[in-house]
Amino acid sequence: MNIQRTLKHLLTTHAKVNAAFSRDTLAAIEEAIKACDAQHAGEVCFAIEGALPSLALFNGQSARDRAVEVFSQLRVWDTEHNNGVLIYVLLADRDVEIVADRGVHAKVGEVQWQAVCHTMEEAFRQGAYREGAIGGIQAIAQLLKQHFPAQRDFINELPDTPAIL
Question: Residue limits of the TPM domain (predicted)?
Fold first, then answer.
């Protein structure tokens, strides 16, 4: 067990999450997702978690493993066209993970997802949570537009509101 990581997680309270992602920032993220979804036939979901649950932290769960778990919990995998993308933010670790459903992942490579994550993480390190989140959503929109063009009869299956875990 990593003591420094454990302390970071224990000290990352809901107040810190609310300070980083204020109501205005959450509203801006929701609007960015709506605008993003209008550009393509993909499904984008945004989730923020302040710290890992105690058992996960004790077991040394990685942000990536937790993101995959959240991908399942939020049912991002359950879209009709296998075109869901989760942006997962673990605030205590200052880590961003993108998990894409198999239909999207087959067309957009890991290198592109990692580039978006690194750009968002850099913005977050500078305290620019709103700008980093919106920039990440816009970058994902560009990737999805290439492989999943907008469709007139497309039904949005995932909520646009960011999930706070």
Answer: 20-142
